[in-house]
Amino acid sequence: LRPQEYRRLKKRERRVNRAYGGSRCAKCVRTRVVRAFLIEEQKCVKQVLAEKTSALKEPTPGKKGKKQ
Q1: What 8-state DSSP symbol labels residue 1?
Q2: How far apart are CA 22 and CA 16, in angstroms?
Q3: What is the pTM of this model?
Q4: How far apart are CA 60 and CA 39, in angstroms?
Q5: Contact between 56 and 64 (Cβ < 8 Å)
Q6: 55 with 45: CB under 8 angstroms?
Q7: Are 21 and 31 in contact (CB under 8 A)?
Q8: Which of 36, 53, 62, 66 suits 12 as a labelling partner, its CA being 20 to 30 A distant?
Q9: Distances (CA, A) of 47 to 18, 20, 42, 51, 58
Q10: pLDDT tens figures, 23-65
Q11: Cα 43 from chain centre
Q12: For residues 60 and 52, is the Cβ–Cβ distance under 8 A?
């Protein structure tokens, strides 16, 4: 649309109905969302791996302690 036509439109019609409201292009918003999602998934994977390794380390009570 031309600038004069934008002036006649309502504010909600001038903006894109998504995050960042049109200040970022659609591709930029998509990459931001995907990046944030993958970072959160990586945190979940780290936590699961840490739980697995701690579960493997726990059932070793056969270690010899210090003699007194």
Answers
A1: -
A2: 5
A3: 0.59
A4: 33
A5: no
A6: no
A7: no
A8: 36
A9: 32, 31, 9, 6, 16
A10: 888 899 999 999 999 999 999 999 999 999 988 887 656 666 6
A11: 9
A12: no
